Amino acid sequence: MEMNVQKYMAFIKTVECGSFTTAANILNYSQSGISRMVSDLEKEWGVSLLERSRSGVRLTSDGLKLLPLAQNLCNEYNKLQLQVEELKGLQSGLIRIGTFSSAATHWLPNIIKEFQKDYPDIDYELLLGDYSEIESWISEGRVDCGFIRLPTLSEFETIFLEEDKFLVVLPENHELADCEYFPVNALCNYPFMLLEKGSNTEISKIFEQNNISPKIRFTTWDDYAIMSMVESGLGISILPKLILQRVPYNIITKELEVPAHRKIGLALRDKKNVSLAVKKFLDYIKYR
User: Fold this and answer.
1) pTM (whole model) above 0.85
2) pLDDT in tens, the chain (288 residues)
3) Which of 57, 71, 270, 288 has its CA 20 to 30 A from that of 31?
4) Distance (Å, rounded) from C-alpha 277 to C-alpha 282?
5) Measured between alpha carbons, how far is 230 from 103 in angstroms, rounded to an integer?
6) How far is Cα 142 from Cα 144, in angstroms, rounded to an integer?
7) Which residue from 150, 151, 156 is spatially nearest to 136, judged by alpha carbons?
């Protein structure tokens, strides 16, 4: 069957190109190999498919009638092969995910747990990074999909997941521990621990939007280091709410009087071209 399909493809490509030589170059065969496959078809079917001349080839009347049927057969064969490969992928596939730490800690365990109930033999590769690193991994094909801040690169397809509030983080004995909403201007009154790395300037943008300049004493991408320092009374900070779930530190959180948030989504280069395992995985994102 597969050999016959190769003959059909040789016939189709020769017609498209108008020559055996060009078709051979595209299909990575010799010119004589393509010519022989078309001749074999003509013998098997008992008809003449092509008129050959020094200027190239063209369809005969019989060839004109049979070409659409050969094209349909090749298209269906390709669909069959793709489906077989995708089904194999669900037996022993690999899903590569780019993620930042809070999504990896608080969302992915539940998502993967539910997915494994139905597809227990799928393996996972998690790459932890910041937003710009995750964007690069998606663009390069290093990961199949990635949790990311929205908006992201325009060429990606995205799925909006959640709007994540930014909260002020204080030591338990802070003088504003009992306030309902933390005053934005008060951010300038205490040493500040800044969660920031590279092109991730979410917190700095809050300062810019409110025209304030806090006393930044420490900058890091390690959210747990910041929480530990706040617990020790070294200053205050602003962190996303997702990071602050089930924290092991004695700290308190307050909403800002001027609300701020980030939008989190899942990004892919092209949903149509990902493996079946990844397509199925997207259905389980709701379990986060």
Assistant:
1) no
2) 667 889 999 999 999 899 999 988 888 889 999 999 999 999 999 999 999 988 889 999 999 999 999 999 988 887 787 777 666 666 667 899 999 988 999 999 999 999 999 888 888 999 998 899 999 999 988 899 999 999 999 999 999 999 999 999 999 999 999 999 999 999 999 999 998 876 668 888 899 999 999 999 888 888 889 999 999 999 999 999 999 988 889 999 999 999 999 999 999 998 888 888 888 899 999 888
3) 71
4) 9
5) 22
6) 7
7) 156
Residue 38: partners with Cβ closer than 8 Å, 6 or more residues away: 7, 10, 11, 14, 20, 49, 50
Read off the tokens for 108.
């992915």
